Amino acid sequence: MEPTKPKLPREAIELYNDFIHGEISRRAFMEGIQRLAGGLAATTVINTLMPNYALGQQVSRTDDRIKTTYETVPSPKGNGSIKGYLVRPISADTRSETVTKLAGVIVVHENRGLNPHIEDIARRFALANFMAFAPDGLTSLGGYPGDDYKGGQMFNKVDKEKMSEDMVAAAMWLKLRPDCTGKIGATGFCYGGSTANMLAVRLGADLAAAAPFYGAPPAPEDIPKIKASILVHHGELDTRLAATWPAYDQALSAAHVPHEGYIYPGAGHGFNCDATPERYNKAAADLAWQRTIDWFNKYMRS
Fold first, then answer.
1. How far apart, in whole angstroms, are the C-alpha atoms of residue 26 and residue 279?
2. How many CB atoms lie within 10 A of CB 78?
3. Which residues 6+ apart lie within 8 Å of 71 measured at CB?
4. How far is Cα 132 from Cα 108, in angstroms, rounded to an integer?
5. What is the mean pLDDT of residues 176-200?
6. Which of 124, 168, 193, 246 has the maximum number of C-beta atoms within 10 A of its C-beta?
7. Is the pTM of this model over 0.85?
């Protein structure tokens, strides 16, 4: 019989969210957990909150249905270059002697860099018959360090404007690849969700669709620049970001942008991340994922 998972108070999960977003220090996080732990050992609570990438892996790195490589993309307006994880379904290239062109998806990480969970998301897109590229915004500092806490510290040191240029360069590199149809979409989580919205503004008609997960919307004056079809996901309990949706919805309507947005009941920030079980909401994650695949199929296959 599997051991019963300790039930954590919502406040502990919110403390973790504040910690990983740099709003409180590691010390404040530890002290807060100690106050909230109750009868549980603080170390037990902390270990329960931390990512478990093996637990959250849905597609193995060695899955024989996909081909994966690490690619380095020039970014002259950014940090010079950006490295990323490129995934294609092998089945797409076995039906003929030539390489099959596929629609492409840029997958943008949270504020810790290209960790194993984001690579797994890219592999999931490949099994949905897209080619996916997950760039690492920490490339200029040596890349994701193998630890989310250190990755978050590094993230705060990267020039954000240059990182944005790196993401634009990555998206255009994917779009212009000979094995891409030229139709690309963008998705991402937290920082990556905000970046998916940013790419919709910056790329205009060069981006076909975007599906930001719990990301901040663009500045109101930039929303008329969007030509991509926008699908927005927020958790009901992620009140600060969920509250941005009505105004974004109204502005997208005014700009005549095809769009939909969903607030998932009982879901908080990070609800899609099955590598952090205390934040993960399977019902919301499964529905948001299927809606994203359907959205990208609708707007990127034609």
1. 19
2. 24
3. 83, 84, 85, 86, 133
4. 10
5. 98
6. 193
7. yes
Residue 126 burial (CB count, 10 A): 25
Distance of CA 57 to the CA centre of its chain: 15
- How far apart (Å, rounded) are the C-alpha atoms in residues 114 and 136? 5
Q: How many residues does the chain have?
A: 302
Mutual angle of helices 42-49 and 26-36, in 10-degree steps: 120
- Kindly list the domain boundaries of the chain, sorted by start residue: 10-49, 57-300
For residue 48, give the H/E element and its range.
helix 42-49
Tens-digit pLDDT profile for residues 221-280: 999 999 999 999 999 999 999 999 999 999 999 999 999 999 999 999 999 999 988 889
Residue 277 has which token pair?
């079980």
- Strand 80-89 with 102-108, pairing: unpaired
Report CA Rg, the chain. Answer: 19
Closest of 52, 94, 55, 292 to residue 196, by C-alpha: 292
Long-range CB pairs of 250-254 (<8 Å, 24+ gap) are: 251/217, 251/220, 251/223, 251/224, 252/223, 252/226, 254/223, 254/224
Tokens of 1: 């019989």
Rounded to an integer, what distance in angstroms lies between the CA atom of residue 211 and that of residue 209?
Answer: 7
Of all helices (H) and strands (E), which one includes residue 182? strand 180-189
197 touches 228 (CB < 8 A): no
Report whether CATH 3.40.50.2000 matches the domain 57-300.
no
Rounded alpha-carbon distances, angstroms, from residue 220 to 144, 207, 216, 223, 252: 32, 19, 11, 6, 10
For residue 79, which of 188, 158, 191 has the smallest C-alpha distance? 158
User: 């790195």: which residue's tokens?
Assistant: 61
Q: What single-letter amino acid sits at 234?
A: H
As beta bridge partners, residue 71 has 84
Q: CA nearest 154: which of 164, 165, 139? A: 139
Amino acid at 200: A
Q: What is the pLDDT of residues 158-169, one digit of tens each?
A: 999 999 999 999
